[in-house]
Design brief:
Blueprint (H helix, E strand, L loop, with lengths): L2 E4 L14 E4 L2 E7 L14 H18 L7 E8 L5 H11 L7 E6 L9 E8 L2
Parallel strand pairs: 4-5
Antiparallel strand pairs: 1-2, 2-3, 3-6, 4-6
Helix pairs in contact: 1-2
Length: 128
């Protein structure tokens, strides 16, 4: 099995000692994406709704770089600054994941996210 670093300039660069994504065999492991606009380096104006859309845009660009889309995603982890935001994030999540087969998911409220983000999402996608 080969392991490759995956990176696109259409999503924010890693802000620490990790990769944007890693391809390992038939799987793509996308690091937790913050709501950073890769062009400005800033969060979008607004709140959790705008941040969640930016997170999904970032994930979409990483998947697309590998010829994948949201139908290839098999597992997600959603990290929230405030569990009260779950319903808003879940509604947006449902815009990207719909259909018969949905990814497995875990969702957590955490004490604090990097850069004081309101949401962070990581995904695992399957190339097969």
């Amino acid at each position: 099995m080969s392991i490759q670093k995956v990176s696109t300039d259409k999503a924010p660069a890693a802000i620490g000692p990790y990769s944007q994504a890693i391809k390992a065999g038939d799987f793509l492991f996308v690091s937790g994406q913050l709501p950073i606009d890769p062009e400005t380096g800033a969060f979008p104006d607004g709140g959790v709704k705008e941040q969640t859309y930016q997170v999904f845009i970032n994930i979409q660009h990483i998947l697309a770089d590998q010829g994948l889309d949201f139908t290839n995603v098999v597992k997600t982890t959603v990290l929230l600054d405030n569990i009260a935001d779950f319903a808003i994030v879940n509604e947006i999540y449902g815009e990207y994941f719909a259909g018969e087969i949905l990814p497995a998911r875990a969702a957590y409220a955490v004490d604090c996210l990097p850069k004081n983000a309101l949401v962070e999402i990581e995904v695992i996608a399957y190339y097969g």
